[in-house]
## 1
Amino acid sequence: MSHPAPDEPGLFDLPLRPLDEPERESPPPRPAPRRPARSGEPSGSLPLFPADEPPASPGAPAAAAPAPAPRPVERPQLLPPPAELPAAPLAARAKAAGGNLLVLAAVVAVQLLGVERLGATLRVADWPAYLAFLLAFSFLYSVIPLAFWGQTPGMVWAGIVARNLDDGPLAFGQTARRWLGGLLSCALLGLPALGALGGRSFVDWLSGSHTLRAAPLPADAPQPA
């Protein structure tokens, strides 16, 4: 039995491709595409960071940009300050009081008409409750408009406004005292109102306020939305 020569390849040493097929070479790697240089930009490689900006360390916090200062909002001055308004004259105060009394008289007339329509009779025993209702209505009619706007409907008609001594809006306690002073003035036939000839009436003195003439809005003033 003959043995193969040592220099001859064995069965498992033969390549898997055909012997007549040439060995393929792997293609060379493609070069990375280069970004075209822009106008005014050097053609060489650029550094990762500019020369005047060193790279920040990973643990250092980023510097926050300073917030811009808020601009003050300018609002148009529609009315002059209360200190520049003149004191309300006696005629304007009387006109305001007359307007308020007309509103109360209209409420009384509507109530009496309603009682008549219902076929009821207003007895003498019912008068205290009826007067209590009128007092409550006059209190709300005077206190709420004075506290929020400084004017009752009668004062709006007469063109006057009430302010405290610091030229600010009235507090609820001051409006309540003005209502009480108005009742006392009506009970005394309006004689305490003569103090307005000196600048402040009895109602102003009792409530710690003063009554001024309201300035009208200028013709070119922007109307509130």
## 2
Amino acid sequence: MKQCSICGSSDTAVICRVPLRTGTGMKRTQKPYDIYRCAACDTIWHENDAYSSREYYETAQYRMELEGSSSIEDFYARHDRECLDKFRYTGTDIFRNKIVADIGCGGGGWLDFLKGVARTTVAVEPSETYRKHLKEKGHRAYPYMNDAARDFPCMTDVLASFDEIEHVDDPQLFADDAFRLLKEGGRLIVGTPTDLRHLRELLGAEFDSFVFSVQHPWVFAEKGLRLLFEKAGFKDVTVKQYMRYGLGNVFAWLKERTPNGDVDFPCISQTVNEAWKANLAETGYGDYLVVHAVK
């Protein structure tokens, strides 16, 4: 059986074998993939083959397959709404006059909101197309963290990264590079989606071919994430669960058997929605994990 590269355990097993989703819709790979889970740290992964190369993430093809567009305007239309959630994870009181890095920032919508507060905004993004726009907006743009570290060695006050670590070939290298980029006492905030445990339990095997995608070779749980950043040298590592989607998302899945994001139903009030999200986060069924740590 395969050894877990996160914790080193050999207590791993194939939990399913499914074609992988290749983008936002329901398109699938022709071949099925073995999906592994480590019993020791709860990390889930699959082999990443052609999608593990840096060159893939540097191309417009990656964005086209993931989101159906590589234009900067479409990026803003799709992701600007996520900025409020990001500030919910980070707060707003840690950025003023600081050097702030966003790792895997895409078109940099969240950094745009920080531009007038932070002293320097460092944008790390493999896409050459997006880096061109990032530079035009005044961000210091680099393809990878080790490139940024040449100009900002151990200088960054706050390093944030959302929806990025699940894409990388080597998560431990990601954590190590983040440690090198941060200054002593600097703060790390990293967010990543879970395996949507509540929907997997409700929908069973048919949901597996949605939650696992070619662009996400890793699905983390709290144990594995904490271990990654502790091994890199971070202190005070904590992991908090959040629930981003309301009860209407579950109803839509049960009704349509397809992703719909947040869906409003007349029978679901905002009070019920917020109680639902709080309950899932508290009981370990959240759909998003956020790591906080200090160098």
## 3
Amino acid sequence: MFKSLILAATLVVSAAAQAHNTLAEAIFASQQAQIQSSVVATGLDWRVGQENNYKLNMGGFLNGTMKMYVREIIADGIWMVQDIDLSIQKQKVEVLIDPANGKIKKMLVNGKEQEPPKSDMEIVDQKEDKVTVPAGTFEVIYLKIKDNANNGQISEQWINPRDIPLSGMAQSKADSQLGKVTIQLTSFKK
């Protein structure tokens, strides 16, 4: 299973590669690679009611939460929602995703339509790994990703689309203007 996921991750290296107006956009953009990798590896078998909950930390001093869930499945695709709650900011990102290829068809941030993030990511390291987060310990694919369109910023992703619904993300670490952003899975519903 992990060999096919590594292959899929290698084949699909798209995620956001532009400056983002909001934290919510940046967080969603970092997950595009996992979503599209999941489509290649296992298909996009998302269902209404699937949900992932995460704890967020920015720069070691700002804490919050994120809830990601499937709102509805329509003829045009799957509506996935991210509700982000930081003490200084709350945001909702709604994304219509094409289940055939994992690409974004429409994106709303706080109810306003936005251009989907551009992609120019390069996987610079990948390996089988294990990670422990508040939701448990998972066998994962570790990806180190370079954002070529954003001054070569590096992000790290620990994913398992087999056991974790939606993007399969167990943990993510990425640089930001406020320091390292860490996202860790706290619970999920399949």
